[in-house]
Structure of Glycoside hydrolase family 92 protein:
Amino acid sequence: MFGAVLILAAAAVTVTVHAQPSPDVQKGIAKAIKNAKNGGKVTDFTAFVNPFIGTDNFGDVCPGASVPFGMVKVTTDNTGYAPAGYVADNTQFIQGVSPLHDSGTGSSLGSYGNFKIMPQFCPGGFNTCKTILSQRQRLRKNNTDFASPGYFAQTLDNDIKIEATATRRAALERFTFPEGTPFFSVDLGNDSPLSFGGGSLDFDPAAGRIKIGGRWRPSFGPSLFFYQAFACYDILDNGKQTLGEFGVWTADNFGMDAKALGQTHLNLSINLIGSSPYQSGALFSLAGNPSEVNIRVGVSFVSADQACQNAETEIGMSSFEEIQDLAVSQWNDKLSRIELDVARSAPNITEIFYSSYYRSFLTPNNATGEGSGAFAGTTSPYFDSLYCSWDTFRTWAPLLSLTSPVDYAEVVENYIDGWRKNGVIPECRSNQLPGWTQGGSDGTNILADFAVKYHAEAASLGVDLNEMFTALLSDGEENPPEWNTGGRQINVYKAHGFVPFAAFDATSTGRQTREGSRTLEYAMNDFGIRQVAQVLGHADEVTTYTNRSTWFKNVWDPTVKSDGFEGFMQKRFGNGTFKNLNPVDCSPLDTNSSRACSLTQDNQNGFYESSSWEYSFFAPQDMATLVDLMGGNETFVKRLDHFFNKGYYLAGNEPSFGTPSAYHYADHPAKSVQRGRQVLFENFDITAGGLPGNDDQAAMATFAAFHILGLFPIPSTTQFLLISPFVPSYTVHNPHLGVSTTVTVDGFDPASVKRKIPDGAAAYVANVTVNGVPSVTGRCFIDFFDTFKKGGNITITVTSNMDEADSCEGSLPDSLSTGGWASAR
Ligand SMILES: *[C@@H]1O[C@H](CO)[C@@H](O)[C@H](O)[C@H]1NC(C)=O
Ligand SMILES: *[C@@H]1O[C@H](CO)[C@@H](O)[C@H](O)[C@H]1NC(C)=O
Ligand SMILES: *[C@@H]1O[C@H](CO)[C@@H](O)[C@H](O)[C@H]1NC(C)=O
Ligand SMILES: *[C@@H]1O[C@H](CO)[C@@H](O)[C@H](O)[C@H]1NC(C)=O
Ligand SMILES: *[C@@H]1O[C@H](CO)[C@@H](O)[C@H](O)[C@H]1NC(C)=O
Ligand SMILES: *[C@@H]1O[C@H](CO)[C@@H](O)[C@H](O)[C@H]1NC(C)=O
Ligand SMILES: *[C@@H]1O[C@H](CO)[C@@H](O)[C@H](O)[C@H]1NC(C)=O
Ligand SMILES: *[C@@H]1O[C@H](CO)[C@@H](O)[C@H](O)[C@H]1NC(C)=O
Ligand SMILES: *[C@@H]1O[C@H](CO)[C@@H](O)[C@H](O)[C@H]1NC(C)=O
Ligand SMILES: *[C@@H]1O[C@H](CO)[C@@H](O)[C@H](O)[C@H]1NC(C)=O
């Protein structure tokens, strides 16, 4: 999300290497890998994770301390463009440490960052403390930021060290002061987007407890609405610390600096004058000059009392180390589900893989028991930050499906519950509120992917497939009066067979843009519905939705030419006439830097954050038709080559995800192998700037992880394209099913793990066996039910002879138009 916009903006900026994080992060990982290479048994998979990948160059990754799917991701909040709070850029200032963050979301304003606490020295006592952000902010010491799963640390330039660890809804923070009296300011109002809409703070000096609650605006949705959030700070470390001075403050950037020693209450309503809200909070010191201070904070979206309870039940009297150990063991439970052969894999690949796999469990945020508004008291699992399904349906959900049906079922039930409560399947829930819909209603494909793989287990995992189908049909048939934040513009889509441009629609309201890309996505959404109808045996709906799945063809304009290629997707008037626009518009090669390509009404090009060049390859459900439309296998391959070579490809943008492996559909799988290697090495590495754009809630992470595994998922289906693993072997564990699957690359050549596969290096898939017999689906793809669902062995024999391997030997991956997906598995 916002990917393309940021990339276009960032293209001109040189990436600078910042003096963060600490070299110890890389040293620790290198040591763990070396140990594995020396024959050590791998027991701690967190040792391979670098949480700082994606914290520079607009990756928007949160390196904060978290547990898997943690609602709390505790890190410091930095000045500048820092949607996740932290950035590696050490020219940015630290304004406090706070418990709530999202990871990898591209909101330009930032998300959460509420309830900051800032340690400081106030040598002249209470009245000399700096309270507002601009005065209290500090730089950090170079080369000191450190993080590992469940742990975050940073040292300010005044030598105060901040450490944090987390549970799902609480954090434990340890501050080490080199000398003097520790002072802390705690914010009532300042979140990252500075969107405070009123709230209150109560300081109970006897209990050493500060309760805070208020309302803020979402980071990616209509600013009309507010979400509520609460925190509970316990500042006396279960009686081991003694309160010194305390009170509250209000201040601004124009000279006001009011402190009230001994006062304990703040209650502010929304400030209607001026764009920047006033800043207020609590201020306190601890007596006796302790050098180490422990502070516990619980958060809740329900109430301040629940925030206190969350801290009590999840942390209680436990020590920092105990909570950190608990977090590490939860991470190992997840990360050990895919075991790479670390001993024989390239160290950078191991690090990219486990860091990516880690981030895949960092989102969405598990806010179960914390629903508010329509979700108050819901008995379903509740997840915050589905941000956006447009990003996550392609690779994030399919990666979860490999190992973690229990987690996936909870996410699915949460989507169904979203429909139950709001009448639409959530598309981009951000800060608990409906966020902007970017294209289609892509939650449909997240539900469908689960249903096709786990229909036999669904009921026992708490998912009612019949209810899911009702929700899907509602998405496919019912036109919400307002589709900007959920659902689709169904009536006109059904009437025309595409989303028309400039057509009168009396039945629904929404921003009338992106007609080309919305049509392509609506067709993919319809395919998701078709797949679930097939699983449930609803023949009529299979017919209807199979037809609708092919409507992407309806925006194909065969007459448009670009760079010698003929035929592109285009937006289309209601009368059927195409609105001809240059397919290059909104691509990286667009020379018009002021063109609008995103959600605003002046986006005229018909595609969202993308060009027609890019989106014209998007029909995962029926790639065979695209190959035909584009003029057959050889032209299709030429066009893909041109797409990459000329620079239309945008690795950091989700609609491009399927293009590196699209050669499969033109019967040139070996070309997908070459392109996959190139794309990974050109766009991903182990540095803080090592992502091609914002992680988009682990969309980038899971794209990279799949390429390393040599697979690419076709969402809402049980098929995975076989590319070529970057590692000699790995084992995928599915603890719920009780099965493990080992993938072995026979003939693996480490020399092939490069941007350009050298001549003579084996990397191309010659043949594939599953449990000792030749794969029934050939060498271009595998089916979940034949492999990961059953467990066992997959042996992929690779060859250096590209020509010998560059065909699917008559077994192309499925496409609807060639009879694909004829029956449910
Ligand atoms: C960090 O290093 C840069 C030079 O690379 C220097 O300008 C800056 O002052 C240093 N920051 C601190 C806090 O020492
Ligand atoms: C804050 O003030 C408002 C308006 O006076 C009042 O309704 C509300 O109860 C107060 N809240 C707290 C927590 O004191
Ligand atoms: C979310 O939290 C609830 C409550 O602690 C827990 O039961 C559930 O397993 C969690 N879900 C995931 C996916 O971790
Ligand atoms: C399939 O969709 C087209 C619109 O593209 C429509 O004209 C046709 O009637 C549909 N066919 C069936 C069998 O539903
Ligand atoms: C269709 O509508 C567009 C926009 O009003 C118009 O420019 C075009 O000429 C129309 N085409 C036909 C065939 O009437
Ligand atoms: C750039 O694109 C915008 C439309 O978004 C258009 O108004 C403007 O004229 C274009 N500029 C040039 C130089 O083509
Ligand atoms: C592409 O190649 C496949 C496999 O050889 C073949 O079945 C198909 O007909 C070809 N498609 C076109 C449009 O040439
Ligand atoms: C590993 O990554 C680092 C940082 O991107 C790079 O400098 C180094 O060359 C890479 N090593 C290999 C063997 O690719
Ligand atoms: C598999 O591929 C390898 C390498 O090309 C070849 O030597 C072997 O004979 C093939 N096996 C089968 C069963 O086709
Ligand atoms: C997988 O391979 C291992 C090692 O060769 C073997 O012990 C096991 O029986 C195989 N499993 C299946 C299901 O073929």
Observations:
- The radius of gyration is 26 Å.
- The pocket of 2-acetamido-2-deoxy-beta-D-glucopyranose (ligand 2) is lined by residues 200, 267 (CB under 6 Å).
- Confidence is low (pLDDT under 50) at residues 1-14.
